[in-house]
Amino acid sequence: MTRSTVAIVSGGMDSITLLYHLMVDGPTDDVHVLSFDYGQRHVKELEFAEHHAAWWGLQHNVIDLSGITHLISNSALTSSPPVPAGVNATTGKVVFTSGIEVPDGHYAEESMKVTVVPNRNMMMLSIAAAVAVNEGAHRVAIGVHAGDHFIYPDCRPEFIQTANDAIVRGNIGFGPFKDADLQDLTAPPEFIYAPFIDKTKTDIARMGNALRVDWTKTWSCYKGGDIHCGTCGTCVERKEALADFNDPTEYRA
Q1: Sheet holding 30-37: strands in order across?
Q2: pLDDT in tens, 157-168
Q3: Bridge partners, residue 84, by sequence
Q4: Which comes out higher in pLDDT, residue 176 or 27?
Q5: Would you call 3 helix, strand, or coil by DSSP?
Q6: Phi, psi of 37 (to 5 degrees)
């Protein structure tokens, strides 16, 4: 059975591999690509999402959530980095603006909690679900994976299952649930498709390699810039995942 899908695609390794998986391994006959601008420090990854959507000839929309960035700015991803603002006349030390710097290190470190954006996946899933229900699409696809479970609560299986159930119950009688009798439903059907939920980043790299994903057309670094920094959590994870696959990524460090 073919299925129509609304896919959340950021432009990173996971979501681009997800897109290729949907198009190659299916089964699907129609994919609508959604990306989100929630005020992240750079939009470089969104350019890659657009590139791959265009390559596959798919509809691609970028949802602008930047209007709430200042309300969710306690994350290193939505806060401006500290920058020099002058010199203290008394101490002679450089004074920096307030802001949150993206930490270096591995995702397993406690310091990485500063990269959590409050309720990010729920926002994206909710909007993607609204689009899917409006279009009558069968599912919403997202590339969350096992490597994110430790630091990001909205990437864990229990969250995805709960969000799935809430979305299904909140749309009874509409879209793909128009003709279904779900009033007494105890086990809602799978609407959120998360095929990597129990996969590691290396698993995703292996799958993407088999699908011939061009890794140079994906972006992971949280710091932005012209090339990957090589030291932030997502760069470290990318290095580890692509170590056995002739990683073509250029890193600053």
Answers
A1: 59-64, 30-37, 4-8, 139-141, 192-193
A2: 999 999 999 999
A3: 96
A4: 176
A5: coil
A6: -105, 100
Which residue's structure tokens are 């056995």?
Answer: 244
Task: Give me the helix-helix angle, 44-56 and 13-24, nearest 10°.
Answer: 10
What single-letter amino acid sits at 48?
A: F
Assess contact for 19 and 56: CB atoms under 8 A.
Answer: yes
pLDDT in tens, 75-123: 655 555 543 445 556 666 643 444 566 666 665 665 566 656 777 899 9
- Residues 37, 47: contact at Cβ < 8 Å? no
For residue 83, give the amino acid letter: V
CA distance 15 to 21: 10
Give the 3-state secondary structure percentages of the chain, helix then strand then coil, rounded to 5: 40, 15, 45
User: Strand locations in 53-92, DSSP E?
Assistant: 59-64, 84-87
- Sequence-separated (6 or more) residues with CB below 8 Å from residue 158: none
Element (H, E) at 35: strand 30-37
Helices (H), ranges, 156-200: 157-169
Structural domains in the chain, CATH included, are 4-73+119-223 (3.40.50.620)
Yes or no: say if 237 and 107 are a contact pair by the CB < 8 Å rule: yes
pLDDT tens-place string over residues 26-58: 666 799 999 998 767 678 899 999 999 999 999
